[in-house]
Amino acid sequence: MRLLFEIGMEEIPARFLEQALSDIKNNLQKKLKEDRIAFDSMKTYGTPRRLVLLVEGLGEKQEDLNMLNMGPAKSVAYDSNGEISRAGLGFAKSQGIEPKELELIETPKGEYIAARKFMKGEETSKLLPELLKSLVMELSFPNSMKWGEKHFRFARPIQWFLALADDEVVDFEIEDIRSGRKSKGHRFFGQEFEVATIDEYFQKIRENNVIIDIEERKNMIKSLIDENCIEEGEQVLIEPGLLSEVTNLVEYPYPIVGTFNSDFLEVPQDVLIISMEVHQRYFPILDSNGKLLPKFVVVRNGIDFSENVKKGNEKVLSARLADARFFYQEDLKNPLVNNVEKLKTVVFQKDLGTIYNKIERAGKVAEYLTKKLNIEDRAENVQRTILLAKADLVSNMIGEKEFTKLQGFMGADYALKSGEHELVSKGIEEHYYPRFQGDKLPTEYEGVIAGITDRLDTLCGCFGVGIIPSGSKDPFALRRAALGIVNIILNSKLDLSLDELVEESLKTLETAGVLKRPKAEVKKEIMEFFKQRAINVLTDMNYSKDVVLAVLDTDYDNLVEAQMKIEALEKFAKNEKFNKLVSMLKRVGNISKDHEGTVIDGNLLVADIEKELYTKSLEVSKAVEVELSNKEYTQYLETILSTEEVIDKYFESVMVMDKDENIKNNRLSQLRFISEIFNKIANLTLIEEK
C-alpha cells in the first residue's frame, strides 16, 4: 500500500518548514510502530504552502498481537489457601483481564502468573483516518494561530487536505476541512487540480509550477544563478543558511539580478552585505577578488523574469542602504572612545552592573594575564582594546538594532578611523571570535586577552549570582563562553592555569561587591564546567574520548599541557606496547585501589622480587619526575613501561593478600606507590585496550 498525505495552507515562515516536515515524519513513524503497521520507506516534501508525506510499502493490516506478560511469582499472587492475593488482582487489572484468565508459567526460578494477550490486526485503511487526523492535531510550531470559527491551532490557516491510500481517499475531517483528492498549484502560476492516483499528483503538481522537493529547489537556485546571473569575473556570495531560507520561501525559484547605486560602496562592504542577506534575503555579487559590486540576486517566487519585481527590490534595497550610510556617517562624526561613557547606562545584568563595570573588571584580569604571559610590551594595547571593545554597542549602526551582527566589526572600523592603533582595531573585532562552533579564532594578543577576560567575567559573574545553565536553559550563553575560552587557550598555546584565571576573575567580582555566593563553591562549579567543555573541545579535535577522559580526570588546570599529554598517549596507543601498559596498570590499580598510603617498610620485604620491585620503583619514580618537569610525556610512558618485566615476575611469585596483616599492607602500599607513578599524567585505568 502507498500513502500520500498533503496539508495545504497559507504560507508558513521559512524557518518552520523543515522542522515541521521532520516532526510529521517522526510522529507518523512512531504512530505506525505503536499501531503495529509496517512500512518500507517514508519521504517528506515541502514548500511554504504545503507539507507532503509519501509512505511506500505500507502494511495492508496491523500485525496480530500475541503477547505473554509475566507477573509476580505464584507464591506472591496466591495465598496459602490458593486464593488470589492483592498482588495477583492488581496484575490482572493492569493487564485488563479477569483473574480466572491468568495462566501459570513454569520458569527456571519457579512458577509465575502470566497474562496472554491476542489481538487480531485491523485493516490499515480503517485506522488511517484517525491516524492522519491526530497527526495534524498534534503538530506544533514555535508560533501558532486560530482563524475564523476554528478552535484548533496551526502555523497558518489550513486550506485543504489531500489524502490517498492506494489511490482511494482517506476520509477524515477537522473542523469542516475535509480530506479529498484536490490540491492547489502555485499561487500565481498554477491552478486547483484533482488527482485520481498518487502518481498523477506528482505529475500535476509540477505542471502547476510547484517544485515540492526542497533539495531540488535548492539546486535549481544554484544552477539558475550560475547560468543566468553571473558575468565573467563575478561570483555570487551564497551563504548556506540564507540559501536554505530562500529555498523555503518559494515554490518555484527564479533568480533575478538587480543593481544599486555605486555611491553606497563607500560604506564598509560587510554592512552592505548584512543589509542584503539579513534584511532582504538577497545574494550579493562580488568580483573575482571578493570585492562587492553594486549588484545582487533576488530569488523570485515565479517562473520567469519580471521587470516589476526587479525594480521593486532595487527600490527597497536602496532605502535600506541609505539608512546604513546615514548611520555610518553619523557614527564617524565622533571618535569611538566617546561612546565608552555611554556604556555606564547600559545594564549587562541587574546584579552584575553595567557594561562599563564589566569592562573595568575585565581590565583587572587582563593585568594578571599580560604579566603571566610575559607580554607587558602589549599591555597598553590590550587595555585600550578592552576599553573600546564594547563601544560600538551604543553606536547608531549597532544601537538601532539594524546591524547587530556587525558588533565588533564596526568597532574595529570606527577605531581605525578614530586613529587607534591597528592592533587595537583588530583586537576589537577578534575579541568576539569564536562566535559559533568552527568559527575563526583571535590571532593577536589584544583579541585573545580581551576575548578571554570578557567571557570569563560573564561566566564567573553569572555563576556568582546564581545564574547557572540547566538543560536547554542558558540565557547568557555560558556554555558557548566557556567553549570559546577553551578554544582560544588551546589555539594560542597559552601556558595558563585555569584555576588561577578563575580565581582572578572571582576576586574582581568579590572586590566589586557583586559576588552573592561563597567564592570557593562558585570556583569549584566553574572548574567542573570548564572540564566538561574541555572534554567536548578535545574530543571534537578527534582525540579518543577515553584518552581525553583519562588525562582530564587527573588534571586539566593547564589545557595546553593536557593536550600534550593526550597527544603523547594517542601516539603511544598505536604502539604494540600500549596494551601491555594498560593491562599492567589496571592489574596494579585494581588490587591497590582501596588501600591508602604509599609508605613502604623495607624490613617487611620478604621475597627477593619484592626488593627488586622496590628498587625499580624508586629508580622509575626519580626518572619520571625529571621527565614530567621537562614535559617529556612519551619518554615518561616508556619509563613506566620498563617496569613490566619485574611486575610480571612479582605477580607470578608473590601473594599480595598475605595472611600476615603487616606484610599484606606493606605489599599494598608498594603497589599503591607504583600505581601513583603510573597515573601521573592520566588515570590510565580509564583507557580502553586497543
From TrEMBL:
GO biological processes: arginyl-tRNA aminoacylation; glycyl-tRNA aminoacylation
Name listed for the protein in its UniProt record: Glycine--tRNA ligase beta subunit
Classification via NCBIfam families: glyS
TM spans (from-to): none
Top-tier EC class: ligase
Subunit and partners: Tetramer of two alpha and two beta subunits.
Signal peptide (residue range): none
Subcellular localization: Cytoplasm
Molecular function GO labels: arginine-tRNA ligase activity; ATP binding; glycine-tRNA ligase activity
EC number: 6.1.1.14
Annotated HAMAP family: Gly_tRNA_synth_beta
Superkingdom, natural source: Bacteria
Entries under Pfam families matching the protein: DALR_1 (PF05746), tRNA_synt_2f (PF02092)
Domain DALR anticodon binding: from-to ranges: 587-684
Family: Belongs to the class-II aminoacyl-tRNA synthetase family.
The reaction(s) this protein catalyses: tRNA(Gly) + glycine + ATP = glycyl-tRNA(Gly) + AMP + diphosphate
Keyword entries, A-Z: Aminoacyl-tRNA synthetase, ATP-binding, Cytoplasm, Ligase, Nucleotide-binding, Protein biosynthesis
Coiled-coil regions, chain positions: none
GO CC terms of this entry: cytosol
